[in-house]
Amino acid sequence: MDSEVQPLLRGEWEQDHPVTAQRDWLRMGAMKVRTVFKHYFKETCSVKTLKKRLPITKWLPKYSFHDLQSDFIAGITVGMTVIPQGLAYAKIARLPPQYGLYSAFMGCFLYMFFGTAKDITLGPTAIMSLMTESFADSPVEKDPTYAIILCFMSGIIQLVLGILHLGILVNFISYPVINGFTSAAAITIAVGQIKGILGLKNIRREFIPQIEDMISNIKETNLWDMTLGLCSLVLVHNMKKLRTIDWKDRPDDPPISILQQVCRKILWIIGTGANAVIVVTAASIAASLLAYNVDKLSLTGKLKAGIPSFQPPKFSLQNGNTTITADQIFSDMGIGLIIVPILGIIEAIAIGKAFARRNDYKIQPNQELYAIGLANIASSFFSAYPVTGSFSRTAVNSQSGVRTPASGVFTGALVLLALQVLTPLFYYIPTAALSAVIIAAVIQMIDYKVLRILWKYKKIDLIPLLLTFVSSFLIGIEYGILVGVGISLLILLYPMARPKTKVSVGGIAVVSLNQGLQFPAIEHVQNKIVEAIYADKTPKSVVLDCSNISHIDYSTIQGILELIPDFDRNDVKLVMAGLKLSVLGELQNADIPEVLYSPSVEQAIAMLQEDISNMPNGGHSVVVGGSEENIKVHDRDIINGENVTVCADSDTFSPAILTLTDSTHL
Amino acid sequence: MDSEVQPLLRGEWEQDHPVTAQRDWLRMGAMKVRTVFKHYFKETCSVKTLKKRLPITKWLPKYSFHDLQSDFIAGITVGMTVIPQGLAYAKIARLPPQYGLYSAFMGCFLYMFFGTAKDITLGPTAIMSLMTESFADSPVEKDPTYAIILCFMSGIIQLVLGILHLGILVNFISYPVINGFTSAAAITIAVGQIKGILGLKNIRREFIPQIEDMISNIKETNLWDMTLGLCSLVLVHNMKKLRTIDWKDRPDDPPISILQQVCRKILWIIGTGANAVIVVTAASIAASLLAYNVDKLSLTGKLKAGIPSFQPPKFSLQNGNTTITADQIFSDMGIGLIIVPILGIIEAIAIGKAFARRNDYKIQPNQELYAIGLANIASSFFSAYPVTGSFSRTAVNSQSGVRTPASGVFTGALVLLALQVLTPLFYYIPTAALSAVIIAAVIQMIDYKVLRILWKYKKIDLIPLLLTFVSSFLIGIEYGILVGVGISLLILLYPMARPKTKVSVGGIAVVSLNQGLQFPAIEHVQNKIVEAIYADKTPKSVVLDCSNISHIDYSTIQGILELIPDFDRNDVKLVMAGLKLSVLGELQNADIPEVLYSPSVEQAIAMLQEDISNMPNGGHSVVVGGSEENIKVHDRDIINGENVTVCADSDTFSPAILTLTDSTHL
């Protein structure tokens, strides 16, 4: 009977009962699976979908020479930025510098085909490098196997999330949590690079021990490294500001001269290329010092030249004479296999949205999952570690006037060129300079302003932020974000688990809920009901006002069943009142004879007072829905002493409830 | 101004707006922290609380000799059960057998002081052993360090959860998830013991490889082990049934004779001691075979005799010539440090509740957290691995007529005695017999009936169950439950992230939400608003009907801010209509001048039509709350062109919204 009622009720539900959104969703999930799949495959094979999955098909046909020019300039500029960044970020991931570059080209190439945001540029980022260091920490020093596997798996998972349209997951990570996490990550990274600036050796890795060691070894500071490091830091930090100078041109000013324009452009280029400038300068200083046999600076040293060979990720690792198997590796990465891809998605989509908004276009978040996923998978075949959208480089890309994702081609090409040609020169790059580049990059990520804002506007949201931040240092950055998400979810779910209940105890106790009854709440409600039964000496029957319940799950039904012994022992009854017809149907499926149903609290109380439970039909109420006009009763059912439910065109089966005796009068 | 409104509104809120439950909770969390702590410490130091924390103080004073008798019998019976189980379960945890017994006594002792359920008996369980094997898998074969640390940490975390009253966490794990997990665990364990029955050597550990190896090595089956194993299995499985024979006595039957009673008691004892009987018999067979120099059976072999020494857990481990540090160990355990304690809590509390209901008393779930937590911490000082409530032994305890938790003393004592005296005899216990004991124990955990029930009543709830079950085998039992919890939370949260919206587009677009606006929903709502703006050629202003919103968080405000560029670019306005006064306050804190507020959708539309935005006060609406009677307007504020909000004794600031021009007429 439930089924024939649905269509009637569905209409009202949609607006009235949010929970039924879930119900419908589940119903679809459970019942329409086949049709959904059929539809899904039909859709995935259509040309329209193909176009949707390959955004390049949208812009390439209209691609002009003018676009090419702009994309070329932008692509090269980004390339200039990513090369020093890549070398530096690899240090964060504790991999040899070239792996930063290995991670810097495939992403760009693939994003051109699958990306929906013209500005985004994929590649190594500070956060991803830190996550790689945390989760893909190989037992073999400087061995990339773990990192590459993490990259591959992240790609797979991002792709799967895309296919399952589970991008929704990122919605459950709130701003305060992301803020707290980002700031903590930035500090962790920055602190980790101080030893690079000071030229300190054999420092432990964990946050606290690291600081201890640096303090205890402070005397061994290499003054050459420190000088170069600090100078680079100050320079790069200030040069970056050149990029964002606001020239305060008022519209009524006279147009500026060519010379001014040129100067401004030059300043902008210096600002944009700050990292490159510093690294190149530092390298040449180091080289010339070496020429004079002054070998004081710690240098990057020799790295493997050339483009990485194309090969599928290796899923095992030789550690001395023991082989580490795939599942050993996976269990080492553990939860990282979820956190890293999710963080990647968050970073990329957040950036994409920001620039889409700035430049007035829209991104398709779900398509972005495909793009990042495929980028990671492809990159892993070139020995990359996990990649995602880089905020700094996306900004550079955007400001360099990028027109389409095609700019990625030039970025990637430049990186490959560098790998092929420049690796011998990377030898001379002082590690102190790279540390400076990193620190300058991450200090911008520390967002202390939000603290003031939250303190002023929304103190409450400081809780997840600070908990994320603090626990990132206490239990490790990789778990800090889990704590944060946990807290904010708990805050979201708390009201679900502790619905407000009103208990009014007269001759009969009435327990009313102010919201839906979902499984997390059942224990709480159980207690309320039992309290109500034992409210005073004599156990009393209970009416549960269910008018706000629009869906009941198995756990909840179980919870009700668990109460039955209490009822029997005390010979009291539970009446569920004001049930929606759909809920009644679900309860009758479960068939709990000890529980009675009633259209309203008042009638429930009346029912209990005339002690329906002594009636021949063993306490079964005969439930008749709808207005008096269309009451029908199936006598057969009554003879069997079964519940009789006549469906009606109303949401709750008001108004009449007839006991056997009454109904026989019909 | 918000502050002075709160008290007025709070009253209505409590019933009307569940979300404010969360709000109040947070408010408390954020603001009343100090007072709460003060109150908390005051409370924790009171005698009443001390009594609550030491339930023994309740029953010990009334303890009678009769209680002592019953508890003694029950305690000894449980001891008889736990000794063979302990030896067997240690096999699941891949630890030497004596560790099962090391884990079997401290729990009993401590629970006597802190436990609130007379029936519960703590100790090693199949699930906890499996979790130990999964999460505390030491790189050093048979080394307990990891297991002991996991035990200690689980205790700490359970204790902390208890102190923070976070037992609520277990409410978020639904029946179907627990069902799926338990069945999967049972199967994993059972399959893992087949090799023991067949006497197969060097089989790989992971589920699938294990099966492969067993099939490939099937020829090496040790027929002696197999025979003994299968016989033991069949016997123990059937003997157990003796315990639960229903003698179908009808009340009108004549009272049964002493002889019958004795027979029944004997059968019951055999049923209850089934494990012990089998193990002892098997051991004696093995011993006698050895006496005749028949050395075919695989035996438990030599174990360390005596009671484990009392020592704090070691937080480092020597592996060959490398030392594994504490944080290495922790990062190896990873998420297990959360899952294991939570599972422990679930298992114990579920059992406690079941028997409390059966025997008509109540447990204090939160006090149980203290009890289990302390039991684990204490046990870890005696080289135990994580312990929790054992269903089988709790049942035995209950059926043996236990009166108080004091029975634990006798169980514990018996275990200690066994360790001291019997260890030499354990040498002869055939591993096949232990495997039989395990399999007989876990097959009872496989709940296939629930599948039929769910299929019949609630197909939807099959999704989390099956996903938990399947993923337990695909990605490992330890993560299967995470997947399950994730899915069921996602099902709970989905409606929050995708609130139903109604978009009606006329000259002005109206977007209305059918529920609160929480951060997971903001992206969805953003899109709806932007869609509304661009619904047709000319961008149009949007009215967001917020009448269902009773609380706004920082992420949501951020989300609105992110839309501003869109508004400015298209020179359209967003009006938030039907705001509750509290929400208005929150929004005004955030001070978003581009957004207008209005008491109702109708007035919002009116406002937009007369294009308020051209007014001198720069589009600031003057908001006046409450009924016309008590309208007050602060002219100073108007002169500054600020929002003027006059608080009123109504939840929404209906009915009047006055623009500057209007208000000057006042």
The proportion of residues in beta strands of chain A is: 5-15%
Shape of chain A: elongated
Task: Tally the beta strands of chain A.
Answer: 12
Distance between the termini of chain A: 21 Å
Describe this structure in words.
Two copies of one chain form a homodimer. With 666 residues, chain A is mainly alpha-helical. Helices cover 60% and strands 6% of the residues of chain A. In chain A, the strands form four sheets. A five-stranded mixed beta sheet of chain A has the order 5-6-7-8-9, with helices on both faces. Chain A starts with a helix and ends with a helix. At the A-B interface, helix 1, helix 2, helix 16, helix 17 and helix 23 of A face helix 1, helix 2, helix 16, helix 17 and helix 23 of B.
SSE arrangement:
The structure is a homodimer of 666-residue chains.
Chain A: H1 2-16, H2 18-31, H3 33-45, H4 47-53, H5 56-59, H6 65-92, H7 98-102, H8 106-114, E1 122-123, H9 126-135, H10 145-163, H11 175-198, H12 207-216, H13 223-243, H14 258-272, H15 274-291, E2 317-319, E3 322-324, H16 326-333, H17 336-358, H18 365-380, E4 388-389, H19 391-399, H20 407-421, H21 423-426, H22 431-443, H23 449-457, H24 462-474, H25 477-497, E5 501-505, E6 509-513, H26 522-533, E7 542-545, H27 554-570, E8 574-577, H28 581-590, E9 595-598, H29 601-609, E10 622-624, H30 635-639, E11 645-646, E12 657-658, H31 660-664
Parallel strand pairs in A: 6-7, 7-8, 8-9, 10-11
Antiparallel strand pairs in A: 1-4, 2-3, 5-6, 10-12
Helix pairs in contact in A: 1-28, 6-9, 6-15, 6-19, 6-20, 6-22, 8-18, 8-20, 9-17, 10-17, 10-18, 11-12, 11-22, 11-24, 11-25, 13-14, 13-15, 13-22, 17-18, 17-19, 24-25, 26-27
